[in-house]
Amino acid sequence: MNDTNRQMNPNVSGGKSFAIKADVSDPLAPTFSFTAQKTMYGGKHIAKGDMIFLFASENEGSKGLIASGIVANAEPIAKKRGIQRQTPRVSITVRRTAIARRRLGRAELKQFSNWKDGQPETELNFKLYRQATNKIISVSEETAVFLRRLMRPSSHR
After folding, report:
1. Which pLDDT score is estimated for 43?
2. Residue 155: inside a domain, yes or no?
3. How many domains does the chain have?
4. Is residue 157 part of a domain?
5. Which domain holds residue 63?
6. pTM of the predicted model as reported, rounded to 2 decimal places
7. Residue 154 domain-assigned (yes or no)
8. What is the rounded CA–CA span in Å between residue 134 and residue 56?
9. The domain spanning residue 101 has which CATH number?
10. Cα separation of 10 and 17, whole Å?
């Protein structure tokens, strides 16, 4: 499935989906680069061609969900020698394909705290906001469908 078809049908992903919460200096940039990002909840499996949803970190004063895109490049970072417990890290480049239609961040997700209710908002609250750390996470197919419905295709400036 090509990128356009994946974006046009919000009910089909055609691959794995991820989300990143990170410092984003220009939310309207056509591409984003993130270096040596921590990964949690399966985020270390991100690869070229995967869909990713970008959350501008509220830790840095931003507003949460800003865009979605396709991973153009993903490179795992080698672990440092002599350190036993290390969070896997990866560097990625993302090509923006859509912009968020509405705000979705910590304030909007805070009420979704019944960790076993199976709702997409709860998964996002648990994985992104239970710990303040910026990170890359994997998201379930249900959550990916939910997030794609919040997007509108973007034209690059």
Report:
1. 96
2. no
3. 1
4. no
5. 3-149
6. 0.87
7. no
8. 9
9. 3.10.590
10. 12
